[in-house]
Amino acid sequence: QVQLMESGGGLVQAGGSLSLSCAASGSIFRINAMAWYRQAPGKQRELVASITSSSPTVYTDSVKGRFTISRDNAKNTLYLQMNSLKPEDTAVYYCNADILSYTGVRTKNYWGQGTQVTVSS
User: Fold this and answer.
1) Which 3 state secondary structure label does DSSP give 66?
2) Residue 108: exposed, middle, or buried by beta-carbon count in 10 A (0-12, 13-18, 19+)?
3) Which end of the chain has a smaller Cβ tally under 10 Å, C or N?
4) Cβ-based burial of 72 (10 A; exposed 0-12, middle 13-18, buried ≥19)
5) Contact 97, 110 (CB under 8 A)
6) DSSP 3-state helix, strand, coil percentages of the chain (rounded to 5)?
7) 74 contacts: CB under 8 Å, gap ≥ 6
8) How far are the Cα atoms of 4, 42, 93, 121 from residue 21, in angstroms, in the given order?
9) For residue range 67-120, what is the model confidence (pLDDT) as tens digits?
10) Residue 27: strand, helix, or coil
């Protein structure tokens, strides 16, 4: 069974920084694309940033220049460094990954449980 577990959320003042981590565990053969999404109260879940297995990255416009996505393939871990945080970054942040397990025949898409990020003004 494959699981994604986020950590690192919390409360920070505007202009501050937070770092999120997402560890994948279980019977993992290969992890393809990984991504961070977020969902603010009353809003739809949106893509924040994504990274492929060879590390090309994509960012939503609102976080470009402030957030950095990275991954450690040896540790099956995804990271999101968030700098210059704004109140509008407040949301639950979710880890997402396309994973092929040793027991699977094709990749499946997995979600973490989410971690709250709150930015105060």
Assistant:
1) coil
2) exposed
3) N
4) exposed
5) yes
6) 5, 60, 35
7) none
8) 10, 25, 10, 24
9) 999 999 999 999 999 999 999 999 999 999 999 999 888 899 999 999 999 999
10) coil
Of 118, 102, 112, which Cα lies nearest the Cα of 36?
112
Q: Which residue has the tokens 């560890």?
A: 23
Report the distance separating Cα 76 and Cα 71, nearest Å: 8
* Residue at token pair 């109260």: 41
48, pLDDT greater than 90: yes
Residue type, 77: T
25: β partners: 3
